[in-house]
Amino acid sequence: MKLNRYIDHTVLKPTTTLEDIKKLCMEAVEYDFAAVCVPPPFVKLAKTFVGNTTTKVATVIGFPFGYSAIEAKVAESVLSIIDEADELDMVANILAIRNGDWGYVEKEIGTIMPLVRNKQKVIKVIIESGILLEEEIIRCCELYAKYGVDFVKTSTGYAEKGASVEAVALMRKHLPANIQIKASGGIRTFAFAQELITAGATRIGASASVEIMKQAH
């Protein structure tokens, strides 16, 4: 297992500096991580830092709470695409999910998907699995599978509970094989990353990526 190719090396804190982005990108290139995940205003800069390497640039949409309007998420997605982001990690409208407004959840993804597909970008939908009921996670998997998203992602890292082996296993059970799972939120050790991958995650979002790689050796 080439663990480095599973990792989205991430910095999303609101106090992120240019220096943080440079360091993140340099580490990602050094370790040949799958991607860097950066705040939207830093996408262009990250693209210049990773250059023509195999490391992609991901950014977030509707982050971290997911309750911005569909139109706002569309605008953010368009701007990220203009800035040449390769992958978009969009927070689903957790309010709508928790209130059982599945029509809204469906409208949201139905509006975003054509935009993403038209530009051949990767979309990962963050469902915040740590604060959802099991049946809500299952319903999300069914709905996002119907729209053919690339990944369903566990967490933003901002909720009280992040990734769990149980949530990843549940998602894997209810998603078709062609839809991948990104586990993120509180992943700080190689052992935990390995458990999540065994449960079915094919991408790991972490800010402790370098430390995880050091533990792997």
From TrEMBL:
<dbReference type="InterPro" id="IPR002915">
    <property type="entry name" value="DeoC/FbaB/LacD_aldolase"/>
</dbReference>
<dbReference type="GO" id="GO:0016052">
    <property type="term" value="P:carbohydrate catabolic process"/>
</dbReference>
<dbReference type="GO" id="GO:0009264">
    <property type="term" value="P:deoxyribonucleotide catabolic process"/>
</dbReference>
<dbReference type="Pfam" id="PF01791">
    <property type="entry name" value="DeoC"/>
</dbReference>
<keyword id="KW-0456">Lyase</keyword>
<dbReference type="InterPro" id="IPR011343">
    <property type="entry name" value="DeoC"/>
</dbReference>
<comment type="pathway">
    <text>Carbohydrate degradation; 2-deoxy-D-ribose 1-phosphate degradation; D-glyceraldehyde 3-phosphate and acetaldehyde from 2-deoxy-alpha-D-ribose 1-phosphate: step 2/2.</text>
</comment>
<dbReference type="GO" id="GO:0006018">
    <property type="term" value="P:2-deoxyribose 1-phosphate catabolic process"/>
</dbReference>
<comment type="function">
    <text>Catalyzes a reversible aldol reaction between acetaldehyde and D-glyceraldehyde 3-phosphate to generate 2-deoxy-D-ribose 5-phosphate.</text>
</comment>
<dbReference type="InterPro" id="IPR013785">
    <property type="entry name" value="Aldolase_TIM"/>
</dbReference>
<dbReference type="GO" id="GO:0005737">
    <property type="term" value="C:cytoplasm"/>
</dbReference>
<keyword id="KW-0963">Cytoplasm</keyword>
<keyword id="KW-0704">Schiff base</keyword>
<dbReference type="GO" id="GO:0004139">
    <property type="term" value="F:deoxyribose-phosphate aldolase activity"/>
</dbReference>
<dbReference type="InterPro" id="IPR028581">
    <property type="entry name" value="DeoC_typeI"/>
</dbReference>
<feature type="active site" description="Proton donor/acceptor">
    <location>
        <position position="89"/>
    </location>
</feature>
<comment type="similarity">
    <text>Belongs to the DeoC/FbaB aldolase family. DeoC type 1 subfamily.</text>
</comment>
<protein>
    <recommendedName>
        <fullName>Deoxyribose-phosphate aldolase</fullName>
        <ecNumber>4.1.2.4</ecNumber>
    </recommendedName>
</protein>
<feature type="active site" description="Schiff-base intermediate with acetaldehyde">
    <location>
        <position position="153"/>
    </location>
</feature>
<feature type="active site" description="Proton donor/acceptor">
    <location>
        <position position="182"/>
    </location>
</feature>
